[in-house]
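G.,

No rush on this.
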Amino acid sequence: MAGRIGSSDVFPQGQTVIDSLYRRMTNLAASPKAVWWLIVIAMAEACVFPVPVDLMLIPMILTRQDRAWFLASVCTVASVMGGVIGWCLGAFLMEHIGMPIAHFYHADGRILALEEMFRRYGVWIILGKGLTPLPYKFVTLAAGAAHYPLLPFIAASIVTRGARFFLEAALLKAFGEPVRDFIEKRLTVILLILLVVIIAGIALVELV
């Protein structure tokens, strides 16, 4: 289960480590301080942590469906805050911290390619990549390295991260445990469809 939401793509060093981290996150999701741990992990996952915060958010929402919107909000804000940290690492400490992080994930080429794409396409990279399997941490580092303006970066990150977490919350609140497996396996497909709808809507507005 730990590898279903992109963890194997961002942490190629070993599935045993991923499984251990997943079990630990599951235990934290049931702890009295779960919300605080959710904040910490959401922030860390946006810039350095290998395991998607979804793996903690999902069981928390299933346990307390009445708090689904609150938990999605907390996760969104914390993730964007972590994204700002990642942006700062890319902008000011790319050589000393950013690139070692990229190298750890075998993503040196991806980061450099994203950096160039930011210079060419700007906010569209955040909106597009934020709804795809590409880890958000790569986007944050590349945005900082390209010195993409911070405020538009934050705004676009709120849209993409919020779309992800609130969609999860909506599905879990509506359907509960039966939809969990579907989310863990097919969330990326749903988000890609959402991305296509957004682009089509923007194109339609421009034509009108």
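When you get to it, here's the other one too:
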Amino acid sequence: MNTGNVNTDNRTVKGNLKVLATGLAILCFGTAFARHANAGCLDYRAPKTAVSWQTPGEFYRSLGVVKVSVEDDWGWEPSFHRAPIVGLWAFKYISKGNLKTLGIPDGAIVDGGNTLWYADGNENTVSGVRAPDTGDVCLGIWKRTGEWTYELNHIGLSWDPVKKVPAGPAFIKQFVTLAEDKNSYEGTFTINQLGPDGKTPALPALIKGKIVATRVTISTDTQEALP
């Protein structure tokens, strides 16, 4: 009997068993870790009773480490992504209460065009009333304040096409209520036009009035003319 071959065979078997045991240990550890992680150690779950008008800032301040999983059926999606105000709109600013202070009669169209409310809390407006060389593209940021109500802080940068210099920013505040069919909204607006320094009021009073808007959908093919 060749004892050298027996010893070699025994060492080979033992080595194979060690490799197998090590592999099983790694597999078991990985499975256990996966179960532990899936149990909630790394979870972020939006509370089921969370306020439906949670804002972007409130959501991201509460965000720690997010688990990537499909088991929640998109339950991780922040509520402001589902805000029904999100989308493209055709709007009008209608003057009200400016006759004595600014000489603008009630019912006059102050501005109008299209506005886009983004899911991330930002907003963009293109005016169809203002001349492009005076500044007709504006930006804003919105907050949901109730189930159907929203507040928007909007900045329009004006330009003097004659002097070719900035004419000062206008801060436009909107407080709007979305209709229950989610296809229109209305509310109030104020416009505070500032001078070139960005601080001094350029008008003796705020421009104020009513805002109305209708949703633009994939099938929309007409839009009311503006003066």
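The two ends are 109 Å apart (CA to CA). The first helix runs from residue 3 to 41.

Enjoy the weekend,
O.
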